[in-house]
From TrEMBL, chains A, B:
Cofactor note: Binds 1 Mg(2+) ion per subunit. Can also utilize other divalent metal cations, such as Ca(2+), Mn(2+) and Co(2+). Binds 1 thiamine pyrophosphate per subunit. During the reaction, the substrate forms a covalent intermediate with the cofactor.
Domain Transketolase-like pyrimidine-binding: 357-528
Keyword field contains Calcium: yes
Recorded family membership: Belongs to the transketolase family.
GO MF entry, a single one: metal ion binding
Binding site for substrate: 35, 265, 360, 387, 464, 472, 476, 523
GO cellular component: cytosol
Protein name per the record: Transketolase
Catalytic reaction annotation: D-sedoheptulose 7-phosphate + D-glyceraldehyde 3-phosphate = aldehydo-D-ribose 5-phosphate + D-xylulose 5-phosphate
EC number in record: 2.2.1.1
Pfam families xrefs: Transket_pyr (PF02779), Transketolase_C_1 (PF22613), Transketolase_N (PF00456)
Signal peptide limits: none
Domain of life: Bacteria
Length: 671, 671
């Protein structure tokens, strides 16, 4: 590239873009790690986007009607940090930029949601940002249809790299966006032809233009270093009636000795090469020094949206008060006042009628009473609507002719669904939940982990949660997936035993502000075990005494979900033999671990032998069986230590020994 | 559809295809569960494939040069079981078909590899089969280039449905196949426009033809009920120089009342409707009864390949003996004789020179000595070759002009890589290993689980295995992934402490026949801790005493991988204070659990306090700390109970308290 030509053609643009390039070089050099090439290559695109198109106000980073900017190629984090610093986001100080990738700084190696304002989502695991963006754009559509264009009317912009486009989840994302004609979603592809291992051709020769078109996108192709072309493409993209992909031909590490090489992807820290690059850019100030005129030009961009924001505030104030309240409440993740009373009334009714239901059906019953009072919920399923029981009659289906529809047919896209649900939660104003079979936690994992890391309350409805699934066999029978989600920090894993506990789990999940929930629900019918009504949410304690010992307490059976019924039957056997047996229902290990020791000790006192019962692997149970005053030679577990098999559910429980008889025998063997 | 027209146009074809349809209806009705519509819809395509194209011999199901047939749409398992039964596979008796989905039958709900001959891979989790097929086709290319066309020359055929094509992994698969011009891969898409939730349009409007073309495929479009068109398309597909997708327009549940509906996808068990469908087919025999002439016609198809097989055997016998031996040894998954001695010599040298190396670099050193003596290994990385250290100089790169190359640049496709590696292992003759960052276990999970379920020895090289990754931050730092893989049945998780243990882990992984391995390797440098040479593979015992207590044994520190060094330093602190401390290195929990109790007791005797040390979550550790003669109040753990952070590795270890000082203090607090 002829840098001089670029520079002289658009000197003002050039100096602004170069500020990004220089800060990137300096920060990566200071950290001695990071990715220099991508921010340098995409500086022109980002500059034009922020200068001329992105609707934002650096002084009001959380303004609900701002455009969203998602850096899907998260390794290029210095692009985002530079932009936030230059445009004047208060928290993104120069000090923070200088402390790139250091302990305590908000400038992590990859952008972390919650660390700094202006970071709309955590990216780095490739493909996540572009898949989140589908949820952002859907949430915008739903809210626009709900509150009107004067309250909600913004774009979602994404910068994605070759890595994002190679990850399979990107296909799920772009086909969803195409299906729903999410015309306010604009993806700028950093088409630099370089990955870590070499040129893209080494591993991929996909015609991305034709690929996106086949998914229903508009595609524009431009020189990503030509500010006029970038501006024109963005202008055109905003007018279309499809999502738009702008293929931006760029040079990674533009102007650096490593330009157009895979070395340029990484940390460019050689002082002489840095100096040479800066000279080529015409950048003469010292490290981390941005000339005052350039900084002011950027700050003007940062405050460009202030007027638009105040105009929006005035428009928003004209909405009916009830609408404003609902909008603000949903953004604040506050529960509606009616929620608690509704759950209590529902629980009372269920305790009285004591239905026998699969907990997936219990879940549907709960949603039938909650969805009408929580207009912010958006449900869905990855092509298992009838099996996951996630759809209630009031939601309406999200579609081209019903943008206010609150149910999404996600198709066979567990990963894309999960990432898009995260995007919805991050956008704000909606509470997403979505279902699949629990075994397909495997497909959704990358996004489930990110929900936990980002501290957002996405709800994953995982039905068919054990060998109780039956004939579909071991490919569809989770045995390790409870352990997988429990191993993940900041995740609530609920395994309710009946309709009452299911209602309690939903209450917690839908009032949670910082923790995602996994609802582990059965395919098979379960009796109501909580037949005595309690207004208190007992599941919020994680575990509680469901049935206490009669006579001397010799045995404690601890169980979850479908195995609580088995534990109760085992208790009957033991009590009939005069062995006092307590049954503890443990719907949520994480919440039980958060209780104070006095409560935990009341539930799990030392002394009696303990048997855990769960149709899953033992991993995760020893803390309750051997720990918490338990003893290695006084505890046992009834569950799975292998994959399942294909047969009717009842047969499987018998063959794998998850029976009341076996539980009782194991308990007796310990006495 | 006018069934009469179809039937009269090709009566012989029709009766053969109808045998599949009738068996499917009968088996699903007997099981009262399953998926009837897909086998009924694709019966014509499958019949033509088996009759006129698929190279196979039902009497020799494992003939190495057979064509492979992969039912990616695994829910249509009755299609495969019908074909295997009709063509005369000895194990697929009528009794087995009648016991569809029952305990002990080989006819599981979804096809399970290892249950019956002719099942080339386990499918059901959608997208896996088509992604496996890329590995099958690559393995064929590599073997053909290695042994010549007279020994290896076969096709891989796939039937995939809309679900397979919606899953993101299919995009990774088809772009890989296109990149490598895998012309002997032929995918037949069951284009029936139906998913469980409704018509495909409900969730997807992708132009699949254009999508496959953009990935470098040839595409043909046919009527999937016209046997001549099917035959012509397969004939053309076999001649091309690209992978071919044949879009087969079909009617799900053809001829049944549920034809062309999502109800038709499931179990069609209504007796009257079944009877009506059979009448429409002109099928007059009772349940599970195939007319003798139709069965003979199918059996003739099953034996059609016998002559070709004997011809192949004759050709194979002309290969040099050394080549035949290598071919047969690799197919049998037998290790070369030299392997054991090579590992021993390497370990001796390493114990003597005691290098300080990251275990990912140790792994490369091991591969440098093993790859040359194991011509069956095929390595690769998901675009992290230099970071995963998976490439050795001798391998050569698999590419269009070097089909014998044994290194694959998988691109940013962790899931597609893992599924394709499974396909390679299933094809036979090659031993695949591939690398990514351990955190991206999340992306690879669906295929990692299937390797364990299928009992195939795929090797997953997972580097950057803790917060020791440093500045890239929590999105890239695994904390729960050791627990995730350990929770999975039939999986070896190796976390070697130094170069010696890394060599031992590789020896086990590359001699394993039925268990996949996860190698958890560090980014950061580690000292050699096994400085005294032992010829025995100590890691095969799972855990062993690395340094015993001097004086009275009061403390046992149990650690893995990078934390063994920390445990040894803690031992120094404790011994200096006169506290006798044993350090147990535990590179593989699963293998330790398999040792007899006497050995386990020698390593972990009751009495001393125990502290576990691993830079990961505690889940999974309690069995060794509290169990195995341990005590709740005499055990502790030093590790992670949250996500990590972005900072240099040394800082993170300090800040998260994973230090020798902290380990020593925790041990003392328990005394």
């Amino acid at each position: 590239m002829d840098l001089t030509a670029l520079r002289t053609a658009h000197p003002d643009h050039w100096s602004k873009a170069t500020a990004i390039r220089a800060l990137t070089l300096d920060a990566v050099a200071a950290a001695n790690s990071g990715h220099s090439g991508m921010p340098i290559g995409m500086a022109d695109v980002a500059t034009v986007l922020f200068e001329k198109h992105l609707k934002f106000d650096a002084s009001a980073p959380n303004w609900p009607d701002r455009d969203r900017f998602i850096l899907s190629a998260g390794h290029g984090s210095m692009l985002l940090y530079s932009l936030l610093h230059l445009t004047g986001y208060a928290d993104m100080t120069l000090e923070q930029v200088k402390n790139f990738r250091q302990w305590g700084a908000i400038t992590a190696g990859h952008p972390e949601y919650g660390h700094a304002t202006g970071i709309e989502t955590t990216t780095g695991p490739l493909g996540q940002g572009i898949a989140n963006s589908v949820g952002f754009a859907m949430a915008e559509e739903i809210q626009r249809a709900t509150y009107g264009k004067k309250a909600v009317d913004h774009y979602t912009y994404v910068i994605a790299g070759d890595g994002c486009l190679m990850e399979g989840v990107s296909q799920e994302a772009i086909t969803l966006a195409g299906r729903h004609a999410l015309s306010k979603l604009i993806v700028m592809w950093d088409n630099n032809n370089i990955t870590i291992d070499g040129t893209v051709e080494l591993s991929d020769r996909t015609d991305q233009v034709s690929r996106f078109k086949s998914a229903g996108w508009a595609v524009l192709e431009i020189d990503g270093h030509d500010p006029e072309a970038i501006d024109a493409a963005l202008t055109q993209a905003k007018k279309g009636n499809k999502p738009t992909m702008i293929a931006c031909k760029t040079h990674i590490a533009l102007g650096h000795a490593a330009q157009d090489t895979s070395k340029g992807h990484g940390a460019l820290t050689d002082p002489a090469q840095m100096q040479a690059a800066k000279e080529a850019y015409g950048w003469t100030t010292g490290p981390f020094e941005v000339p005052a005129d350039v900084k002011s030009a950027w700050e003007a961009i940062g405050s460009r949206g202030a007027q638009e924001r105040t105009a929006w505030e005035a428009r928003f104030a004209t909405l009916p008060n009830s609408k404003q309240d609902q909008f603000n409440r949903a953004y604040a993740l506050d529960a509606p006042k009616k929620l608690s009373a509704t759950i209590k009334a529902f629980k009372k009714q269920m305790s009285e009628t004591a239905p026998k239901l699969a907990t997936r059906a219990s879940s549907e019953k709960v949603l039938e009473v909650l969805n009408p009072i929580l207009p912010e919920t958006v449900g869905g399923s990855a092509d298992l609507t009838g099996s996951n029981n996630t759809k209630t009659a009031d939601l309406g289906v999200f579609d081209l002719d019903n943008r206010a529809g609150r149910y999404v047919y996600w198709g066979i896209r567990e990963h894309g669904m999960s990432a898009a649900m995260n995007g919805m939660a991050l956008h704000g104003g909606v509470r997403p939940y979505g279902g699949t079979f629990m075994c397909f936690t495997d497909y959704a994992r990358p996004s489930m982990r990110l929900a936990a890391l980002m501290k957002i309350p996405t709800v994953f409805v995982m039905t068919h949660d054990s060998i109780g699934l039956g004939e579909d066999g071991p490919t569809h029978q989770p045995v390790e997936h409870l352990a997988i989600s429990r191993a993940t920090p900041n995740t609530y894993v609920f395994r309710p035993a009946d309709t009452i506990e299911t209602a309690e789990a939903w209450e917690i999940a839908l009032t949670s502000k910082e923790t995602p929930s996994v609802l582990s629900l059965t395919r098979q019918g379960l009796p109501t075990v909580r037949t005595e009504h309690k207004t208190k949410n007992l599941s919020a304690q994680g575990a509680y005494v469901l049935a206490d010992a009669e006579g001397k307490r010799q045995v404690i059976l601890v169980a979850s979900g479908s195995e609580v019924e088995i534990a109760l039957a085992a208790r009957d056997i033991l009590q009939a033999e005069g062995i006092g047996t307590r049954v503890v229902s443990m719907p949520c290990m994480e919440l039980f671990a958060q209780q104070d020791e006095a409560y935990r000790k009341r539930v799990l006192p030392g002394g009696p032998v303990r048997v855990g019962v769960e149709a899953a692997v033992r991993q995760g149970w020893d803390q309750w069986l051997l720990g918490e005053r338990g003893k290695s030679n006084k505890a046992d577990f009834v569950g799975m230590d292998s994959f399942g098999a294909s047969a009717p559910a009842g047969t499987l429980y018998e063959k794998f020994g998850i029976t009341a008889q076996n539980v009782a025998e194991k308990a007796k063997a310990l006495l």
